[in-house]
Amino acid sequence: HTRSWGVAYPEILTKCYLLGEVVGLGPMDPTQNSTYNLIGDLFREVQEVFPDKYFHLGGDEVAMDCW
């Protein structure tokens, strides 16, 4: 589900390796400050548009094979 984000911001996704070669991109990379900057920007935009107290972002299907 993060693939569309990775097209625009590949630096925020983890790299998936197979035999030492990058074979794709995985979940968001929590070690990168740019990940948190992008999420913060998203939160601010959502708050401007929707008055709801909560919103669901997913994250319940994280592929662990890229870690």
Automatic annotation (TrEMBL):
Residues 1-67 form the Glycoside hydrolase family 20 catalytic domain. One of its GO terms (molecular function) is beta-N-acetylhexosaminidase activity. Keywords: Hydrolase. It catalyses: Hydrolysis of terminal non-reducing N-acetyl-D-hexosamine residues in N-acetyl-beta-D-hexosaminides. It comes from the Eukaryota. The keyword Protease does not apply. Its EC number is 3.2.1.52. The keyword Hydrolase applies. This is beta-N-acetylhexosaminidase.
